[in-house]
Amino acid sequence: MKKLIESIKNVFAIEDLRTRILNTLFFIAIYRLGSFVVLPGIDPTRLKTGASGVLGILDTLLGGAFSHASIFALGIMPYISASIVLQLLTIAVPYFQKLQKEGESGRNKISQYTRILTIPIVAAQSVGFIATINAEAIMNPGVFFTVSTALIVTAGTLFCMWLGEKITDKGIGNGISMLIMIGIVSRLPGALIGEATARSMRGSLIFLIEMAVLFVVVMAVIILTQAVRQIPVQYAKQVGGAASLSSQRQYIPMKVNAAGVMPIIFAQSLMFVPAIAASAWNKDSEAATMIGTWFQPNHAVYNVVFGLLIVVFTYFYTAISVNPNQIADDLKRSGGFIPGVKPGRDTSEFIDEVLTRITLPGAVALAIIAILPAIATVAGVTGPFAQFYGGTSLIIMVGVVLDTMNQVKSYLLMRQYDSMMKTGKTRGRSQNISMAS
């Protein structure tokens, strides 16, 4: 406890870090406040108490803004969809491939295209969102309500996008991911209280077992997120004039889960399609009813298809994010080589083989974590609390928390180096020089 208090003091002792933390909290407070501002023309007392099925998963990611019919009803999710489209375009379209290789300027152009693409996506999704609102809650339905609501929801998403960029620039960083994580975490206290209340009637032992299992799952997600396969790299001895540098051994860290949460997001986006199509189809149709039943989060068909898609997308996203040929070329130019492997093509094939082997267990583990909420629901855990046993929610939370901790540590490390330059070694060296003279 004493070390924790000391660490908090060190964090707030750094002026720049303290300012960034306060800015982040300020932007998050604005985001959460907007999540409770109901759209004009809607009676909040007649809204549905909560979304279910695939829309329930979306509502969890948005912190309840979807079911509250707020001005941030779609949150940052259309921007995520636009980012996915742009990432796919960097594979298929040569122009975007060229932009990706141009460094900072190319990334800025891709970000600008992503912002522009977000507008038509959120405009289209806002019309679908209006269709999900309870008809009794709309006080004056009609064309004017549809157009005005679509404009407000679009403006709300653009404002959320602006908040995310401000958190990245003026705050701790990872603004877009931070907003999603805050939305997820905001549902945790209510889900925890609801589960504790439900279990209090049967006994507290079951609730304690559930918390222990949740702890184990969180630890497993952390291990999966941090696990790496280190490939040894040897750098040849370099001789230049009188100076001589001995050979050095370093490592290339290949992450077991190099794709992160993106395969789940890709797969989740596709799994929304059958359920939404079935709801828009003729509801009296037997085929629509069957599809709508199969593609619900707790159905076996949904989870089998969902798991297979995650495995496929894990390999796909790893292939586009990690380039063995480029790694081999960079090693060759810098004078490095993998012991026992020839530079060039053999090195590329070796890295590709290692990447293929470690991606399989990572993909399977990611798929298992993604379907754990359905397993928890079958085991008797309440729906809201079961969402925290895995899936997108848990992986996003763990990833964002770990990234934030790493950024805070980098600030603390920088402060430590600054203090060493101002005191200690620098002063001692000057004293030794003065004594010698």
From TrEMBL:
Species for this entry: Hymenobacter actinosclerus
This protein's name: Protein translocase subunit SecY
Q: Where would you find the membrane-spanning parts of this chain?
A: 21-42, 71-96, 116-135, 141-163, 175-193, 205-228, 256-281, 301-323, 358-379, 385-405
Compartment annotation: Cell membrane; Membrane
Q: What does this protein do?
A: The central subunit of the protein translocation channel SecYEG. Consists of two halves formed by TMs 1-5 and 6-10. These two domains form a lateral gate at the front which open onto the bilayer between TMs 2 and 7, and are clamped together by SecE at the back. The channel is closed by both a pore ring composed of hydrophobic SecY resides and a short helix (helix 2A) on the extracellular side of the membrane which forms a plug. The plug probably moves laterally to allow the channel to open. The ring and the pore may move independently.
> What is a single Pfam family found in this protein's UniProt entry?
SecY
Lineage at the top is: Bacteria, Pseudomonadati, Bacteroidota, Cytophagia, Cytophagales
Q: Which family does it belong to?
A: Belongs to the SecY/SEC61-alpha family.
Describe the subunit structure.
Component of the Sec protein translocase complex. Heterotrimer consisting of SecY, SecE and SecG subunits. The heterotrimers can form oligomers, although 1 heterotrimer is thought to be able to translocate proteins. Interacts with the ribosome. Interacts with SecDF, and other proteins may be involved. Interacts with SecA.
Q: Do you know which InterPro entries this protein is assigned to?
A: SecY, SecY/SEC61-alpha, SecY_CS, SecY_dom_sf
GO cellular component, as recorded: plasma membrane
